[in-house]
Amino acid sequence: MQDGQFEGVCFTNGYFRLVKAPGGFGIRFFPPREGGEGIRISDVLDYLNRFGVDYDANQIKKYIAEKTDAVCFLGRGDCPVCDESYLLEIGDDQMEAVARFYPPSETGRRITFEEFFRDLRYRNIVSGVQMSVLQDHFQSGGIYCTDLVVARGKEPRHGYDAKIKYHFNTDVHVKPTMREDGSVDFFHLNVINHCRKGELLAEIIPEDPGEPGTNILGRRVAPRTVKRAVLKFGRNIELSPDKMSIYSKVNGHVVLVGDKVFVSDVYEVENVDISTGNIEFEGSVQVNGNVASNFVVRANGNVIINGVVEGAHIIAGGNIIIARGMNGMGKGTLEAAGDIVAKFIENATATAGGYVNTESILHSQVSAQTEITVTGKRGFITGGHVQAGNRITVKNLGSGLGASTVVEVGVSPEVKAKYVQLQKEVAETVKLIKSTQPILISYGEKKARGVRFTEEQLKYVKDAARLIESKREEVEEKSREMNELQSIIGMQRKAAVVVQGSAYPGTTIIIGDVSMMLQSNYQYCRFEKVEGDVKMLPM
Questions:
Q1: Does residue 14 contact residue 37 with C-beta atoms inside 8 Å?
Q2: Which of 133, 202, 241, 278: CA 20 to 30 A from 30?
Q3: What predicted TM-score, i.e. pTM, was given to this entire model?
Q4: How far apart are CA 321 and CA 336, in angstroms?
Q5: Angle 108-114-120 (CA atoms, 0-180°, nearest 5)?
Q6: pLDDT for 201-244, tens place per residue?
């Protein structure tokens, strides 16, 4: 048997061995080959400590550094009898066991496959034993000072959550088109999803539960928990017998509000006035004429008005479209969960969950979650307070007569506060999960040793497991909400006011937490927050 090999099998990693030496014994170091790992000084010192062999640490470090087949003399007398040994580590998740073998001394013996296999069984390692790896070691001269995966569990195959596939357009944010003469076409918006009786509206793509795995102790490893889906819907919709699909029961209009599907015949009237009274409708409402002052139109879907709105109140779960505009008379309001499109908005209050598109805003309070566009032939904002989360685009801003006009873009304080609060809640929940996990780890270790538990102890462990699962779901839900808020914040970091014509003195521009009052006339420019101040930049 030559130095550097046993029974003719060469090693890749560096290793060491206690050998006889003139006048006593020492330790021989064999450097790595073929790019293998060098000898670890910690391996050598731990090995000598285990067998009670005295040594000079500095001298050993010197010999290892020289990387030669050298013998470091350790002492006089016979060479210690040290049989082949190993260290065995089991991963915290009990999915892998790693053995690191050390060669016998020149006077020692190798352990057998049977001895090592009995030790695996003693440690309850019964699944995923890597026989080919063990054969490579025991049927050769040995593979030493190398981490060998001697047992590997079968990982579970994780499935996926159920999904709902909608068979209609769920993106109702459709902007009006511009005509060649610069005016806006408010009539052909194609925002209605028409459906026919018996038409498939939505179906559930079933969840995949995945497949369980097995750890090296032979225990089942469950895949990640998946979520089921439930179809939510209003009237005029039929659920299939297997509850996996929904169909329209009427010819009408389908809209998705939140996660609920609504189908309705569009409620159509000529005018909203004393002849109709207030209107409340689950679907969409179409008014072919005008809406008189003080009346209310409320719809879960869209509200489409082909005439003029006076000092009325319009509330929509979808979009509000007013072909000839609104004169609010100082009391009229528009509230849309989606977008607002109107010829003009005058002396009114308007709030949109999406964007606002109009040809003029006069002495009004207007806010939009995303952007406000005021263009077309007139394209002016004069007086009032106009707010948008991301961008305001206007042709003419303010008034040459000095009307007090305020425009504001940027992240709202409510969005920032909500994001910070969610961060704090997630951190506290993660801390609770980490403080509870040791209970399950201790239970698993004791169960592996055969410890029996009382009913009260088992209930305590089950309650801890349920708590961890519920808190993990809570963290996932809040993390998704944080990601949505982060997207809004990220989009609003580039908030701007874009002026395609003139901006007049006396106008106040607010971006985030800073503001600027215009002292002179500006043209064809944009205003952004730069280095903590509102700055005018060229288009």
A1: yes
A2: 133
A3: 0.50
A4: 10
A5: 105
A6: 999 999 999 999 999 999 999 999 999 999 999 989 999 999 99
